[in-house]
Write a structure and sequence with these properties.
Helix content: 40-55%
Number of domains: 1
Strand order of the largest sheet: 3-4-5-6-7-8-9-10
Shape: globular
Distance between the termini: 34 Å
CATH superfamily: Metal-dependent hydrolases
CATH class: Alpha Beta
Largest sheet: 8 strands, parallel
Number of helices: 18
């Protein structure tokens, strides 16, 4: 992974209750380095994940399992060669591999197994609430009907609540490299399943596909009473974030990195309290940032933005939620207060009731003492 965790310990020593060990590491009263203390705290604290593409959790082992079950031939001889194919240099190269991976998802049980594997994995990270995207159009184009997609995902989400205590929301994302007319057609197909959906999103290739391209279909989603979110400002400019706010009337911004390029936009996002679902390892893998020690997450917090930590497509980008926290802690001067704020933001930005938010914040406060 590009970037290194520097040996400078000044930021460790700035916190109370620490001593400097002869090795140069900052230690707390129990002899743990502050970094290790923060890593343990990040592991223990309850958190929500608000930016997760379920197709992006397709680990190579799962891909081969489903391919064998469904008689799908993969163009790779083994798991290691498929994992090696996950080396890409930009968003479009990733999407090419991503959509190819979808070919193994054919039956309801495939969508169930994929979703259930994700829930089991993030349960280990103390994720207590998830808001999942699924790319319905990518499956519809392969002849996989919505009832198969939604049926498998929803069944796993119900089991996740019952067996793991993880609450959830399901968000149908429109693919921005397709037309708005195609999005309208998908929305029409989704009409019988609206009671099983919690919102609509916008993802896929950002450059050349501004949010304004989908203004009418999202107006329709709003009329139907749904919350909406859109990927904006990842590879696209700050103007795409402004368009998402003005033309789509989004409730949340996914990514939003380039919001920092526009001071007035930062002020607006702060004033309106819009949540940004930031994905550090994804940003690194797709060269949105050149190195993790250059990631703007702490700058976002410092400027009052309601940033959160998410994994995006963890099978492809090298890690789940806590792996993202670890990368930040190892490469940036993250503090205990930052961790609390990030977890709090994840609950504040979740599409859950105020009562549920209060419960999650109570549990978070117990961890932080």
């Amino acid at each position: 992974m590009p970037g290194t965790c520097g040996s400078d310990v000044k930021w460790y020593a700035s916190l109370s209750g620490l001593v400097i060990h002869s090795s140069g590491l900052a230690l707390d009263d129990e002899g743990l380095s502050l970094k290790e203390e923060l890593l343990r705290l990040a592991q223990r604290m309850p958190k929500a994940e608000l930016h997760l593409h379920i197709e992006g959790t397709l680990e190579p082992e799962m891909a081969f399992k489903l391919a064998k079950r469904n008689g799908v031939r993969l163009h790779y001889p083994d798991v290691d060669s498929l994992r090696a194919a996950y080396a890409f240099n930009n968003l479009q190269e990733f999407l090419d591999v991503y959509y190819t991976g979808m070919s193994v998802l054919l039956k309801e049980e495939d969508f169930y197994d994929l979703t259930w594997a994700y829930l089991q994995r993030v349960h280990q990270d103390n994720v207590v609430h998830v808001e999942i995207f699924f790319d319905s159009q990518g499956h519809l184009e392969r002849g996989i009907p919505l009832n198969v997609q939604i049926g498998g995902i929803r069944r796993a989400l119900k089991d996740g609540k019952r067996q793991l205590g993880i609450s959830s929301k399901l968000i149908l994302s429109f693919l921005r490299h397709l037309s708005e007319e195609h999005a309208f057609e998908t929305l029409d197909l989704a009409e019988p399943f609206l009671d099983q959906l919690d919102g609509f999103g916008l993802d896929s290739s950002e450059m050349g596909h501004p949010p304004g391209k989908f203004a009418r279909v999202f107006a329709r989603c709003k009329d139907l009473g749904f919350r909406i979110t859109a990927h904006a400002g990842e590879e696209g400019p700050a103007d795409y974030v402004s368009q998402a706010l003005d033309l789509l009337q989004v409730d949340r911004i996914d990514h939003g990195n380039h919001s920092l390029d526009d001071a007035a936009l930062v002020q607006r996002l702060t004033t309106e309290g819009k949540t940004l679902t930031v994905c550090p390892l994804s940003n690194l893998k797709l060269c949105v940032v050149k190195a993790m020690d250059q990631h703007p997450l702490l700058s976002m917090l410092k400027r009052g933005l309601k940033a959160t930590v998410n994994s995006d497509d963890p099978a492809y980008f090298g890690g789940y939620v806590n792996d993202n926290y670890r990368a930040l802690i190892e490469h940036l001067p993250v503090t205990r207060e930052d961790l609390y704020q990030l977890a709090q933001n994840s609950f504040d930005g979740a599409w859950v009731s105020e009562e549920e938010k209060a419960k999650h914040l109570h549990d978070l406060n117990r961890v932080f003492g």
